[in-house]
DNA sequence: AAACTCATGTAATAGGTTACATGATTCA
DNA sequence: TGAATCATGTAACCTATTACATGAGTTT
């Protein structure tokens, strides 16, 4: 697996213009955390490496400035474009929820149901957040003007669609497992 | 994040009885790869550590036997049970597909569509495989007798439901992006 | 005899997380 | 003035991946 933080940084700088590491992290947290996450401990070293390899550069080379704002260079833009057309790497699935569920006959039914309920509540919360952003997006003339509009909307709908499907599954599964348990 | 390979091993040995590292890997690949994956390079060291900490033990302590079959110990079963009732750890999302899509205005439309088509084809294949297993499961008296039956069925349905939702999204999204592009 | 599957492992590396440290700036 | 937020970074650690190495047994 390649270092994807690097490409995430290049992409964000390319789309949103000059930003600091702190800004990039903030943007991830508030706007794309439903499909992408970064943390400082990895982000800052990657920024240093991107700078020293010339893929990004500081806006003001003044060493005294505390806040380091970066922009993407031509070289960085070329590297980003090359990555974008490469096939999406296969990501081996790892779902702790399904792993635990598959060991369900080593658990009490009530513990399984509690686990499912907890996960469902988490997903409901995420769903509500995405739905709000979606409503905003659909109504905002400002958002529609941005070149990334259709892509961000599509990504948002992926999140919403997946969450809807999972919420339906949680309800069905809880009923299924309760019924099954009763009829044993 | 905790070492989940360890718990996966304990769970599999607990459910399926004595197995070798090779068996566990084979089982992951053929039966649960849609939600769990392991690789040898991690699995074998974890097996060694589990053995030396007494959570699993060799079936035959004969050093000459090449094939090392392990079973779970009482101590291991206790550790497994404790993990099963712990809350599922939050897993930060990282979808390369959605990341690339969100940088869509740095790509050609045809490249985006090709990327989506490729991912869709992959998901269709997975969907067909899961659907076949599901059919087998629903029809097999043998499968129904096993205590893990309802849980494996539920997990299977999670995979199927998610894939269905994603396939629908791929179709909708390709049309949406093409229409949007045409009307610009 | 060659090819394939069974079977176990190690070493190097990458990729990312957690915890810690530090100090400036802004706001109540 | 104290708290919160802004802002950057490092060190230790862990988890997992990749590549490599080895050899037995089985099938074609």
From TrEMBL, chains A, B:
Q: Give every Transcription regulator PadR N-terminal domain span.
A: 9-81
The superkingdom of the source organism is: Bacteria
Pfam families tied to this protein: PadR (PF03551), Vir_act_alpha_C (PF10400)
Q: Which InterPro entries match?
A: Tscrpt_reg_PadR_C, Tscrpt_reg_PadR_N, WH-like_DNA-bd_sf, WH_DNA-bd_sf
Transcription regulator PadR C-terminal domain segment(s)? 94-173
Instruction: Give the range the annotation lists for the signal sequence.
Output: none
Gene3D superfamilies to which the protein is assigned, alphabetical: 6.10.140.190, Winged helix-like DNA-binding domain superfamily/Winged helix DNA-binding domain
Q: List the protein's name.
A: Putative transcriptional regulator
